[in-house]
Amino acid sequence: MREAADATLPAEGFAIETGPDGVALRYRDAAGKRYAEATLAQLRDQWQAGWPGIAIRDWPDFPVRGYMLDVSRDRVPTRETLERIVGLLALFRINHLQLYTEHTFAYRAHRTVWENASPITPEDVVWLDALCTENGIELVPNQNVFGHMGRWLQHDAYRARAEAPEGWRAPWGSQLPPGVLAPSRDNADFCLGLLEELVAHFQSRRVNVNCDETFELGQGQSRAAVKARGAGAVYSEYLGWIIEGLHARDHEVLFWGDVVRQHPLQVAGLPRKDTIGLAWHYEAPASVDEPLSDEARSVMASFGMDEAALRGFSGHVAPFVEHDFPFWVCPGTSSWNTLIGRLPNAYANLRDAVATGLASGAGGVLITDWGDNGHMAPPSISWLPLAYGGAIAWGFEANRDLEIEACVSEFVFEDSQGLLGPAIAELGTLHSLPGVRVPNGSALQFALIREEMLSRFQSGEADAAGLGELHERLGDIAARIERSAPACSDGGLVQRELLQAIAMARHGAFRVARSADLPCPTDAELAGGLLACIGGQQRCWLERSRPGGLADSLDRLRPALAGYAG
Question: What pLDDT does residue 451 have?
């Protein structure tokens, strides 16, 4: 084989030519060489009898193709799981990884916050950073320093830092515990101290400070400031302190763009150099036509999700485009709040993000994988959308119609029968029950956890025929999963966790039937079934994730169990 660097190729690009004289490989840089060698390895497996004459020229559409995994909604992966994820990212040509952190990093002086969470330790970071570097992936520190700080503020030592120490009233009327820091200079300095400790363990100079969903801003300590200057100005002042503090330490800062999208004039006042806005949106563009309830639309509007925002990424990137501000597009895997995924939504959301990003000058794609409400879905539910997102972020036009299910069966699961990829793909289409639709999740999970969300947001009614068909299809998929025989390092773990997810989904469907007075098992039978689900969830969890957070996650199922007793 002949190989050489070629400065005429785009960044990360490579070229391969084969013929009677053997193989010639050219690459732009170390990343291009790595991707070329991986491509050759796959070609060798397919053409062991000899090389046909081929010519390949390949390079990415986006320089940054990232994955952000939530490790703060109870589920913290084991090192073995993290190693598996890094291998998948390398396979999918994803070159950027973040672990979304609220309370799950082991800060030296804050044990009370993380001691029950089996946190990511400094030693874990150093190990993972080296593994990522070996695979051409940038590991980027991530710590929320404004919103989503409830796991800190629940402790007496930190509650005075809250915007609303006694709690706040959500748009739908619920009284909730504090979750947002007061936008004070003292809190900014406190958070900069956390970030200084965190980033010391990473090679990357980037850091994601998040600062999203500051819902209760103006309901407490900042009430007077918000009334006088507006929520956007108060928010941007605090974010500016964080950005300036990190810039002084030579860091590039990433932040979620949802709040400044609602106050677009504030974008112009933020430091543009070494700052990146993360424009996120997790619904397919067609969701604007979904028959959402009036209350659902009202609540979403209170969070800044107006009709323009629901139409897709064009409404989310507009403030950054208008002010020529660097930004990335951030779709999701649509696995959270679902048990079994929302694949049609995920694929459409990913395509919308990438197409909009290409058209509007985004510098990267960050695929997010959240764990809302106990991170019930197993990791493997996210792998199909992650693979598809990585493919179209690399080459949109070439891969938008890729048969990703077959690719995942072959290259992720090494399933010689080709059963697992299609089975997971079909499973991911069953989230929406006939007549029952909810935003940002599935009725199957909301019926098990936070049932009030289902009753508040669903539109339509379940019917016995539709539920009967659902159970039949879930049973058929389970049978196919049991017949599959992947040879990959996961062994039978993928099958076990998928069968567990199906068992949970079936129980959710029974609860939908129960609430609609349709035929379903007795309460005693349902109680036994849910106890079995809880046991199965615990076993599968501990095969992939650390024990911290497991009790909190399973506790979300206890109200449903208690309901069968009364």
Answer: 73
Residue 328 β-bridge partners? 278
Residue 29 backbone phi and psi in degrees, to 5: -155, -175
Place of tokens 């193989």: 23
Reported as a single tens digit per residue, the pLDDT across 11-65 is 999 999 988 888 899 999 999 999 999 999 888 877 766 667 889 999 999 999 9
The domain 64-412 having CATH identifier 3.20.20.80: the answer here is: yes
The first and second tokens of residue 308, run together, are 């323009």
- Residue 157 sits at φ, ψ, to 5 deg, of -65, -15
CA distance 130 to 145: 26
Segments making up each domain of the chain, as ranges: 2-58, 64-412, 420-565
Inter-helix orientation angle 420-427/383-394, to 10°: 100
**Three-class SS of residue 157?**
coil
Three-state secondary-structure class, residue 182: coil
CA atoms within 13 A on the CB side of 554: 18
Kindly report the number of other CB atoms within 10 A of residue 111's CB atom.
11
How buried is residue 504: exposed, middle or buried, by Cβ count under 10 Å (0-12/13-18/19+)? buried
Query: 53: which DSSP letter?
Result: -
For residues 146 and 187, give the distance between their C-alpha atoms in angstroms, rounded to a whole number. Answer: 9
Give whole-number Cα distances, 89 to 138, 336, 355, in Å: 11, 20, 21
Q: How far is CA 310 from CA 288, 408, 443, 496, in A?
A: 5, 30, 20, 36
What digits encode the pLDDT tens for the residues 318-369? 999 999 999 999 999 999 999 999 999 999 999 999 999 999 999 999 999 9
Q: What is the pTM of this model?
A: 0.96
The total of other beta-carbon atoms located within 10 Å of residue 428's CB is 24
CA distance 294 to 274: 41
Share above pLDDT 70 across residues of the chain, in percent, rounded to a whole number: 92
Q: By C-alpha distance, which of 250, 402, 338 is closest to 411? A: 402
List the one residue out of 193, 217, 392 whose CA is nearest residue 304: 217
Q: What is the largest CA-CA distance in the chain?
A: 78
| Plot region of 190 (φ>0 → left; ψ -120 to 50 → alpha; else → beta) | alpha
The third-level CATH classification (topology) of the domain covering 2-58 is Chitobiase; domain 2 (3.30.379)
Give the residue among 129, 127, 153, 133 at the shortest CA–CA distance from 141: 129
Q: Exposed (0-12), middle (13-18) or buried (19+): which is 114, by Cβ within 10 Å?
A: buried
Residue partners of 181: CB distance under 8 A and separation at least 6 = 145, 146, 147, 149, 153, 161, 162, 163, 187, 191
Sequence letter at residue 104: T
